[in-house]
């Protein structure tokens, strides 16, 4: 059997322009829920509310099969073009096969390795701390992020966003937005330095 060609960003871009046309509401309220319900029934998937992470091997395999089938059947919706980016099963499996097996966040003594973990793995997961996209005031931005960085349990920071920049609203597409994004990165790095966590992943 021939191995599917690894897709490039150019391939995806072309598919985003030429894929099947679907209205966003139809995608959100019909395509996704109906396909999910169908596959849930097909693979007998039932959620045990007492066990968030499944450990039953048959259920784990069925979840993978259902997820793979859903991706191939539904594709990925591009809201910019209102089109569906479609993939074949072989393309999805080739992407999984070629995916990185590890990633390093941070540098120096603060570097941590993110790698796949099974449900039986004794190794602790990486803990990412931070406001995670929540709005933060200019006045408290630095202190908020320092409070996360100084927690020994936290390995990397997922930063918040500045509500204002020098009193101005960082409207998307404006110079204030660019200034806010730059300031966020500078302030988070300063917060990490103040917490003694220079090099911590961001």
Quick synopsis:
InterPro entries: MtmB_MeTrfase (IPR008031), MtmB_sf (IPR036655). This protein has 202 residues and is mainly alpha-helical. It has helices at residues 9-18, 24-42, 57-74, 89-98, 141-149, 175-194; strands at residues 76-78, 83-85, 103-105, 112-114, 128-129, 135-136, 156-157, 161-162.
How does this structure look, described?
By secondary structure, the chain is mainly alpha-helical. It has 2 domains: 9-98, no CATH class; 108-114 and 122-194, no CATH class. The protein contains 6 helices and 8 strands, in the order αααββαββββαββα. It has helices at residues 9-18, 24-42, 57-74, 89-98, 141-149, 175-194; strands spanning 76-78, 83-85, 103-105, 112-114, 128-129, 135-136, 156-157, 161-162. It has a two-stranded antiparallel sheet. A two-stranded antiparallel ribbon has the order 3-4. α2 runs antiparallel to α3 and α5 (141-149) packs across α6 (175-194). The longest helix is centred in the last third of the chain and has 20 residues, at 175-194. The chain is globular, with a radius of gyration of 21 Å. The model has no long low-confidence stretch (mean pLDDT 94).
